[in-house]
Design brief:
The chain is of the alpha/beta class. It has helices at residues 18-29, 41-48, 59-69, 78-84, 105-118, 137-150, 171-176, 188-197, 210-241, 245-253, 274-287, 293-317, 344-353, 366-377, 390-394, 407-410, 414-419; strands at residues 11-14, 34-37, 72-74, 87-90, 125-129, 157-161, 180-184, 204-208, 324-328, 357-361, 384-386, 399-402, 424-427, 443-446. Strands 3-2-1-4-5-6 form a six-stranded parallel sheet, with helices on both faces. Strands 11-10-9-12-13-14 form a six-stranded parallel sheet.
């Protein structure tokens, strides 16, 4: 980064959600002293006792080890955070709002509260927006709020953007070993302090303006979502042609210009980022007089893929009214307890509306799904049963739908098939290998794989003129 790095500053994290805790522990693991604050006292109490509120691979172990080292400290007030940390990251939620816009009230309130706390603090502080915000937000919204609330100018308060690029299910690894660090600032002092904060992280740093850094985040998520949706669109081709989508996209991704990552067909993307971010990207583009056609098309393909999944289930099972259907995996993907924008919601809703009796299971996300389902569904909440074991979920089922490829589901024992009325699975992830289900009597229909030798009707080539012997 620009200039000579300063001494290693203390780090503050305001907002300890999925992204906040992963970022905090990554800084701590790299030797920084980290102070963390969350508005929820239950989250603070859980972290202080060494219990992670979130399911992420390696998170619990890292939390406990950093707590023992004394480098990760939970504080109870924003004032303590402002006094203790020289570089404070805003990791506050920016959920979906109306009309595709992001809801900025948590970020506004947090910036205002932090600014007031900084008013009484001596010495230079750097506030860094790590929350996902549309381009222009740091300079046009967050910085003015901070300056008004703190009464501080650029000589004593810096403001920068530093978007995160974490993938749920592997957030710890992504935070510890980032592929790139993107920093947006308007003066050298901000860049130098962030250079010191990130010293030792094995990644190249890109220095941009705040708006450019924010744009990188949205452009990245749009491109990744586009790759997912393209693979999903290709999966409909391979079903029609009798092929296998994994074979096709495997060959496609072997081209280094394209690459294999995110070319994995499934029921459609979910999670806290893609849907929300693409809608916000489209909305912000409209404000600037731009048409974000790639993002618009990606959202449309994702909606169509969910409809396609419903059709695939109906074609496989026949009329669903009165049938018992088990849905395995309700997190938006395996490896996390996050159910935000999970495709399990529209899948289950479609099954219920078709008259099916639905049971669901998930090894980590069942409680989160149940809470959100009851909030959404009202009087129809009772139409779904929540099973604590796979066998209970499958007992008497006419069909199972594999929605998330948890390892617990992939070694399919014969007793699971025996528990079902009809041992039939629609595998939306192509996760059940032939060897794993051998001898179980299970029939599997996979998304993106042509079934029963069905192929599109093609015009056959003209027969070649036979050669004379």
């Amino acid at each position: 980064m620009t200039g000579r790095p300063t001494s290693t500053p203390t780090v503050g994290i305001m907002g300890v959600g999925y992204m906040g805790i992963a970022s905090a522990l990554a800084f701590s693991h790299r030797g920084r002293r980290v102070f963390a604050y969350d508005v929820n006292p239950r989250v603070r109490a859980s972290l202080r006792s060494g219990r992670s509120p979130y399911r992420e691979e390696g998170l619990q172990e890292l939390l406990q080890s950093e707590g023992r080292r004394g480098r990760f400290v939970v504080v109870d007030t924003v004032g303590e955070l402002a006094e203790s940390a020289r570089c404070i990251f805003l990791c506050l939620p920016t959920p979906a709002g109306r009309g595709g816009r992001i809801h900025l009230a948590p970020l506004r309130a947090g910036a205002r509260e932090l600014g007031r706390a900084l008013r009484e603090v001596r010495g230079y502080r750097l506030v860094v927006v790590k929350s996902t915000v549309v381009p222009g937000t740091t300079e046009s919204l967050v910085e003015p709020i901070l300056r008004r609330a703190s009464g501080k100018g650029p000589e004593s308060l810096g403001v920068a953007s530093n978007p995160e690029f974490l993938s749920e299910g592997r957030m710890v690894q992504d935070a510890l070993y980032p592929e790139r660090i993107v920093v947006g600032a308007n003066d050298g002092r901000c860049f130098r302090m962030l250079a010191a904060v990130y010293r030792g992280f094995p990644a190249a740093t890109r220095e941009l303006s705040p708006s450019e850094a924010e744009l990188v985040k949205y452009a990245s998520n749009t491109f990744l979502a586009l790759k997912v949706s393209f693979a999903n669109e290709i999966s409909r081709w391979t079903e029609a042609l009798g092929g296998n989508v994994d074979d096709v996209v495997g060959a496609l991704g072997a081209d280094r210009r394209i690459g294999p990552s995110f070319l994995k067909a499934g029921p459609g993307f979910g999670g806290s980022c893609f849907e929300k971010d693409l809608r916000a990207f489209v909305g912000r583009a409209a404000q600037l007089g731009i048409r974000a056609r790639a993002a618009e098309a990606t959202l449309a393909i994702n909606r169509e893929q969910t409809d396609h999944v419903s059709d695939l289930i109906s074609r496989t099972a026949g009329p669903l009214r009165g049938k018992s259907v088990a849905v395995l995996g309700v997190a938006f993907k395996a490896g996390t307890d996050d159910v935000r924008e999970s495709r399990a919601f529209p899948i289950v809703e479609g099954l219920v509306h078709a008259g099916a009796r639905v049971r669901v299971h998930d090894p980590a996300a069942l409680a989160n799904f149940r809470r959100e389902w009851e909030r959404r569904s009202g009087t129809t909440a009772r139409s779904v049963k929540f099973s604590r074991s796979v066998v209970d979920c499958l007992r008497g089922a006419d069909l199972a739908v594999l929605q998330a490829e948890w390892p617990e589901y992939l070694d399919w024992p014969a007793r699971w098939s025996e528990a079902m009325r009809t041992p039939l699975v629609v595998d939306l992830r192509r996760a059940l290998s032939p060897s794993a289900r051998e001898g179980t009597g299970l029939r599997v229909v996979s998304l993106g794989v042509g079934r029963d030798g069905r192929r599109a009707t093609l015009t056959p080539p003209k027969a070649a003129t036979p050669r004379r012997p």
